[in-house]
Structure formats: structure tokens, C-alpha cells
Specification:
The chain is α+β, with helices and mostly antiparallel strands and 225 residues long. It is built from 6 helices and 7 strands. It has a 3-stranded antiparallel β-sheet with strand order 3-6-7, covered by helices on one side. The protein has a two-stranded antiparallel sheet with strand order 1-2. A two-stranded antiparallel sheet has the order 4-5. It is elongated, with a radius of gyration of 20 Å. Bound molecules: zinc ion (3 copies). One zinc ion binds next to strand 4 and helix 5.
Length: 225
Amino acid sequence: MLDLNAISLTTSASLNGLLATCNVCGTQEKIVFYSVLPPKYFNEEERDTRYFICKKCADKLKKLMFFVEREILKQHSYCYKKTNFAFVDKRTYNPQTKRTINIKLNFSSIFSSKNKKKIKCNNGHYKVANAHCIKCGLKENITAHHILKRIIFGENGSVIMLCARCHQKIEDIIREMEKKIMHLIKEIYFLIFDLIKNIKFKKNFKLRIKKKRGEYIFSLQKIRN
Ligand SMILES: [Zn+2]
Ligand SMILES: [Zn+2]
Ligand SMILES: [Zn+2]
């Protein structure tokens, strides 16, 4: 018998040597104890539903989750704009999730090894000369901040100048805003986990997230190629 309490509760806890089986593909090799809810949006207590999963399936799951998260956040450009605006203007802004979100799932392109295009993370701030922070007026350590996050929206957004300290503050506020959005549709992560178990086919799907009487309903529809 496997004693779950004896296993360290980190996602990378290797269970090599123990007879655990991947909950997705059934292999007994390179098994990790894995929480479907990502640490960047959920705290330790919320992440108590865990599965045994092999490294291969975990990689696939991460790719699929990253894709879906990005597609969801992409549809919240107004949240990013308003959060930035609220930061400069001292107003507060509470993000809400849209009534309907449609996401096209083309599994072969999501999982293809060619799909390694790395987009520069928003934290790669670059220094700007002769500018001042639009929040506090400081003229030192000025960095450019993308109103629409680069990792999600790409390179073509407008930037504002902020000192390193104010920049850090707005990035923290934005992280909280993203957390709130992903929290509202927590079930999406369990749905993605179920999806990864069933992807043996090369069909493409449309994932629909629909808000109805305060609740989110998920549906999956096959699309013709
Ligand atoms: Zn597996
Ligand atoms: Zn500043
Ligand atoms: Zn930034």
C-alpha cells in the first residue's frame, strides 16, 4: 500500500521506486504527485486534489493548461487596460469573467515540438533614458511596462514608463487580477485534466465557457478540419 502522507506534497516529488500508476496513461515510470491547480493561481490548501501522473503526461498537461489559460486571459484585454488605468488613477478595479469564452483546441499544434516559440516574459524590463515614472515622477530606474502583457498579447501593445518600484507594484496587482479571473473558472483545470486522458484522436475541438446564473458551464464541441 502506498502511504500518501509519506509523500512530500510538491508537484515534482518523484515517486520513483514506488508502485504508483499514471492516472492518465497507466504507466508506472517517472510518476509525480501532481496538483491540477497551478501554484501561480491557487494556494497550498486549495491545491489538495492531486493525482499520480507520469512526466510525459504532466508535460502535455502543462502545455494544454498554458494554452487554455492564455486564451482565457487574452479575452480580458479590458481587465488589463482597466487595471493599469486604475493603478495610475488610484481607482480600484474588479475583474469579471466574460459571459462566453470560446477557445479553439487544435491538439496537434498545441503539442507539436515546433511550438517552442518563446515569447519574452513581461518581466524582461528594459531601461529607458530621459523619461520619468508616470506614477510617482521619479527619473531613475525607469522601465517600460506593457499595458497588454507581452506573453499573452504579443509585442504590439502600448507601453507606459514606470520606475522599478512602481513597476513591481503594478505587476503584483496584475497577478492578483489574473488570479481572480482563473479562480472564477477553477473547474477548467479539472476539465483539462479529463481532456488529456481522452486525447487519443486527432480531432479538433471548440471549448466553450458559458456563464449562466453566476455559474460557469463548460462544453466541448468537435469541429470539422
Ligand atoms: Zn502518463
Ligand atoms: Zn514610480
Ligand atoms: Zn510590466
